[in-house]
Amino acid sequence: MTDSQIDVVISEVGPRDGLQSIKRIMPTEAKLLWINALAKAGLREIEVGSFVSPKLLPQMADTGDIVRATVSIPGVTILALAPNLRGAEGAIAAGVHKVTMPVSASREHSMANIRKSPEEAVDEVRKVRALLDAQPAETRPGLEIGISTAFGCSLQGLVDEDWVIQLAVMLVEAGAESVGLSDTAGHANPAQVRRLFKRLNAELGDKAGAAHFHNTRGQGLANVVAALDVGVKTFDASQGGLGGCPYAPGASGNVVTEDLVFLLEAMGLRTGVNVERLLTARAIILEGLPGEHIYGNVPDAGLPKGFVYAGAPA
Amino acid sequence: MTDSQIDVVISEVGPRDGLQSIKRIMPTEAKLLWINALAKAGLREIEVGSFVSPKLLPQMADTGDIVRATVSIPGVTILALAPNLRGAEGAIAAGVHKVTMPVSASREHSMANIRKSPEEAVDEVRKVRALLDAQPAETRPGLEIGISTAFGCSLQGLVDEDWVIQLAVMLVEAGAESVGLSDTAGHANPAQVRRLFKRLNAELGDKAGAAHFHNTRGQGLANVVAALDVGVKTFDASQGGLGGCPYAPGASGNVVTEDLVFLLEAMGLRTGVNVERLLTARAIILEGLPGEHIYGNVPDAGLPKGFVYAGAPA
Fold it and tell me: Which CA distances in Å does A123 have to A16, A96, A174, A310?
């Protein structure tokens, strides 16, 4: 399937968002097996790790090696998260295709998380932009931003919608190539999702980015349906729903990739991703992290009788 | 809250759909405590049992007693399922407010389930209509039909959409006061939900009934969002997601009432149901069925900081 035959891009964040929330460390070899299996299942964007202090997140200490070993997988865009300029330096050195930076809309979350105000985080984006602009054009990574806590915050509660949109505009001015909205702690509802992405599209045009939903309160796919309605074309998801929210013990984390692929394909939207191959990739997670609890209803129930992929020949 | 202040009716099916899928029998006293707690939480429609052979479903053997003990709860419509004329006789004798009859769109499912074709099931509805018409008007129960396997069938796979709509029309002609669509085994997707309910509305007008979604493949709330878009106003749900699908071990069953209430209220749609009181009712299930596994993301994660009910004073 060529890119022009894809209706919706699923950006797999399991190897980053998923693994960083698990205390145990998946061995590098297992990570590489998993990422290759994800690519074989048809995922075209994979966020493979995070350039953060290994003291803070030892699970991500091998991100440089992971990037170097995966950037040449054909047809796959390799992303890595960088929380700041230093992280972006690491990402560039390793040769990522795209740097992704989180900027929190919630002032309290931003201070608690990175000890910076949202405005200071925008300044950091500006510095990363300058660093990227200094790279040779042919190897220069892209820069996308996810606005975290865009739909609400576990610390401060409500987050002002006007401010979220204002921050998105500031981030584009600071040099982001795309700005998406993240429901970091499972606050979002479909009405709010429609409102915010509609405004984001109106303000940013083709720089409006991905939707990143968590399933903390079971609303992940409901919010995807709402986002599709207002034209969102890229969704983050995590295989097995890895990425649990620390505020919600027992609750699953990110939208489950397997369930999302089924939703989209059943709706007639081509993702290029094969569910059966994703199930193979699941086995690799469990080999790399024996006994880990992974989620997903489609993996439990299987594809329904009579199911056909959107892109399947009639 | 008066009925006119309700935007969406949640019809709780746990005491019927949930309990009949669990092998153990919840004692009558526990059922009554649970149903009363559901009513206290604000649910206005409760399906309390099924008039079927106690040999087939001993869990439902006390349905007559349950109906008699609950029909006088103020403001609550008490429903019971009747698969046939004999069941309807029992329901009428016990004094239900509404009889609900399932009719399967899938020929294979219908034969396997009740050894009748869909057309023969329509004939049975006609007989129940005649029986109801023979009752005194002031105590005559209503009659609603749920078309099961309306979105697909585990046995035959795809179910023809034209046929589902044709069957709905036949059922109204046979005397149903409303006809809803049920996703018995978790096949439905939001695009299909919009198509089918749009056609149902167009054909049946105000006789178009409830949406009954299962969460077998995690798509329950996504399908609710789609159904809301095309004007569906009544949704079946089951507290704790009770009602597991026999074809999907480990998968949760009905849409979880707690998660549905959160979805709707967060979207600004008034349900009259209080989530905190639902959590109290959960404890009663576990007292009645110790160790039973019940589902729900909102019960695990809690309501988010800053949450306000749609009907709450500003």
Answer: 24, 22, 7, 43
B92, containing H or E segment: helix B85-94
Phi (first) and psi of residue A238, to 5 degrees: -130, 130
User: What does DSSP say about strands B9-12 and A77-81: parallel, antiparallel, or unpaired?
Assistant: unpaired
d(CA A279, CA A235): 20
- Name the pairing type of β-strands A142-148 and A98-104: parallel
pLDDT tens string B137-189 = 999 999 999 999 999 999 999 999 999 999 999 999 999 999 999 999 899 99
Q: How many CA atoms lie within 13 A of A275 on its CB side?
A: 25
Rounded (10°) angle between helices A190-204 and A220-229: 40
Extents of the domains making up chain A: 3-301
**What ipTM does this complex have?**
0.95
Judged against a pLDDT cut of 80, whether residue B120 lies above it is answered with yes
Please choose, from the candidates A275, A154, A136, the residue with its C-alpha nearest in 3D space to the C-alpha of residue B307.
Answer: A154
Closest CA in chain A for residue B187: A304
In whole angstroms, what separates CA A27 from the centre of its chain? 21
Min Cα–Cα distance to chain A from B183, Å: 12
User: CB–CB of B189/B223 below 8 Å?
Assistant: yes
Query: Which sign, positive or negative, has the C-alpha torsion A283, A289, A292, A294?
Result: negative
Whether residues B248 and A186 touch (CB distance < 8 A) is answered with no
Quick one: pLDDT at residue A35? 98
- Among residues A69, A79, A128, A130, the alpha carbon closest in space to that of A100 is found at A79
In CATH terms, the fold of domain A3-301 is: TIM Barrel (3.20.20)
Report the pLDDT value the prediction gives residue B246, as an integer from 0 to 100. 45
Architecture of domain B11-301: Alpha-Beta Barrel (3.20)
- CB atoms B259 and A152 under 8 Å: no
**Which residue in chain B is spatially nearest to A190 when comparing CA positions?**
B267
pTM confidence score: 0.96
Interval A33-48 mean pLDDT: 98
Number of CB atoms found within 10 A of residue A142's CB: 15
Name residue B254's beta-bridge partners: B214
Nearest-neighbour CA in chain B from A38: distance (Å): 21
DSSP 8-state class, residue A310: T
Catalytic one among B94, B176, B245, B264? B245
pLDDT one-digit tens code per residue, A171-228 = 999 999 999 999 998 999 999 999 999 999 999 999 999 999 999 999 999 999 999 9
